[in-house]
Amino acid sequence: NMAETDPKSVQDLTNVVQTLLQQMQDKFQTITRIDDLEKNIADLMTQAGVEEIEATPEKAKEGQGS
């Protein structure tokens, strides 16, 4: 009968829920870290001039000008 729940089962349920929430939080933090890493990599590529290779028209103009 659910009206008179065993304190042990309530404690078990609480533990299960806490564990699930912790796992979800860990996964979310991992996803957030991956997003941060992707942003950092994009910034590094920009700094290294990788995007300039894709956008060559400006480089070509500079080359013709000199």
UniProtKB/TrEMBL annotation:
An example Gene Ontology CC term for this record: nucleus
Family matches, as Gene3D superfamilies: 1.20.5.430
Q: Which domain of life does this protein belong to? A: Eukaryota
A molecular function (GO) held by this record is: transcription corepressor activity
Record's InterPro entries? HS1-bd
What GO biological process terms does the UniProt entry carry, in alphabetical order? Answer: cellular heat acclimation; central nervous system development; neural crest formation
Instruction: Identify its protein family.
Output: Belongs to the HSBP1 family.
Cross-referenced PANTHER family: HEAT SHOCK FACTOR BINDING PROTEIN 1
Q: What is this protein called?
A: Heat shock factor binding protein 1b
Q: Which gene encodes it?
A: HSBP1
